[in-house]
Amino acid sequence: MKYYILFILPTLAIFSAPSAEPALRPNILYLFVDDMGWGSIGPNGQAARKDKGLPYVRTPNIDRLAEQGVNFTRAYACHVCSPSRSSQQSGFHQGHTFADANDPDNARKAMRAEDLLMGDALFAAGYTTGYWGKWGYGGSKDQFNPKVDNIQSLPTSHGYTHVLAELHHVRAHTFFQPSLWSAPAKTDAIGGIHLIPNSIARYIGNDAYPDLPAYQNHHDYPAVAYCDDAYAFAALDFVRINARNYHKTGKPFFGLLATQIPHAPFNEISRLPYWDHAYEDDPAFKNLSPQAQQWAAMVTRMDAHFGHLLSALEDPNQDGDTSDSIADNTLVIFQSDNGGPRGSSHTVFDSNGGLRGSKGKIQEGGIRVPLVMRWPSVIHSKSKLKSGTQCARIVDITDLLPTFCELAGTPSPLSIDGVSIAPVLSGYGHQRNRDFIIHEASNGQSIIRGKHKLVRARVRGNRDTPLELYDLERDQTEEANIAASHPELVKELHALLLGERVSEAKGFANTYHHWIGDDGGLMSHPENWSDYAYANAGVTYLSDDGGPQLSWTALIENKGITHRTVSAETDLEFLGFEISGSSMETTQTLQIDQGIKLTGRNEIRLSNNGNLVINGGTLSSLRWVDIQPGGILQGNGRIEASLYNNGIVSTSGKTPLEVSTDYYETMDARLRVSIADDTSTGLKVSGKAILAGTLDIARSDLSAKANRPYTILTARQIEGTFRNMNQRVTDGNDQLFSIHYTHSEVSLVPVK
Asked: Among candidates 503, 405, 552, 453, which has minimal Cα distance to 1?
């Protein structure tokens, strides 16, 4: 079900505040490392260690990023490599993806053609895309005889046009591979990708590539390149070329450098000349264990490569003239895939910043990771989110995909678990929130909600492992298990954990389905939906040909030539669903009958020409109901979710439309209400109502009585106002009303 959204929105965020300013879509450079703990960078502990005279790892360029940008101190990823990367690319947490372990079968099953990944989204939004480094979750299953085993899982099948990578998860951890996968490729290459020699030869004697850190000009440098040097130089070429092109064409780029280092085996770096050159002035370095030395050298080598990339943003032509710099409108992200490794590198450098656990563990030391972002034109000394500061907002690895989508002006993939933090970065618009985050791999599960974290460790083969509960606000190092004293909270969080499908057996916890039924069809009938089967190399791994269920991502899209209506006649659950039509002449309507509850656990989306009619039913989501431009929600009933209106909400009937949490409007939104002598219908919001759109009167049956108020919206708190001129609105009979506000109520008063 892969479908690309090709239009570009002109503003930074879909749900921007009225004062939001247009912004250029940024270039995006994503620096992603393997096995670098939360405490491995200067602002998270290494600078303090230096000041105390303790052994420390040197990351001057990452530290410079933090000084010029923002250091997110509560960033999370999974605790092992493949699941973390799968979640990064797809926006789904590990309970909704296949890659819940570093499994060789990931090469055949990790990604599907229907999955809309990071490269897909940004390529469709008009970005030039590149990926370099460890892919590690699909494409090639043979470590010793690499070949394409699954076209569906290739980076070239998911929007990445410039590639130098290792596909196999284990092969990626041998740093002197004789060949690497590359794109663009020759026209007959399977999947648009082919193997090329991994040679340093093209860089030898070339002044464009600095002598440090790779020492590619040294006579002892091996003919086969240290893989991460090759990845970094390919990324450097891409950035230089596309930085210059950006000035000529305005076409932005997205590049993701996914280094293998500082992952084990550590000793391979010692094959390079002067591998420990960066620490030669530190006498204490020679007294460290070989693992600690080698890990630190890998980190610093990677950091030096990042420095060259940052310099390329600032001076693309390498002529000393920075007038062609693109650094201001380039968002640079640095992040690790999981916590730091066990062993002396962990103990000597305190690479996880005092947190309990390490890579492979579900504790904070395994899942909390360094995350730094810099975007000078938006994040600076006078912005809302100021440069050089720390931010304690929780950011999960699943959040990067929707963030990039929002900045690029394209909708996020349907049903994903991540939440865009673009409003946090920009300082404009409303920041959506999630209730909890989930992490899972073969040896641990956790859910974090607010200050509490529920943990089930060592779950493989033992689903009865006791549950642990920690208060991260008071107990960041997870020393005090408080599960016994909070049984109800444990029960509640455990139910959410199970509800997120994390206890499922191996396989995808989401499948994609299209509506294929006729006008007037019923949603519960299996024959009205497309079947789903996932197969590769003649093996069917998953088939799903039953009726709607919680694991479905469903699209009800009308591509015909006439209006079409679908009915929800019984309670139904989806992971997420979308309703859309192709034009005003071919709208798609979904009708929820009286007393029926329709659930989209992650998201319910009304796209252009998609209508949803609630006739006394209930619409429910743990996330939100999203009405995009051209979408219409109408009727009366109950919305058990946050309601985001960038289209039309139209109330009807004798009772209001109830919203159980919050209601948000953009400037382009419309709220339509009906009023009569004895009733007025509108919105009844249990939480906040943020107003910014236009108020309409759909129907008015009354003998106008001066000064009589007709209440059309109630909320716990009302912020903002409608954008109606002079705060007045006229009905179809030319009766004029004035709009009046209190902190919790909006009413209309007839004007004679």
From this structure: 552
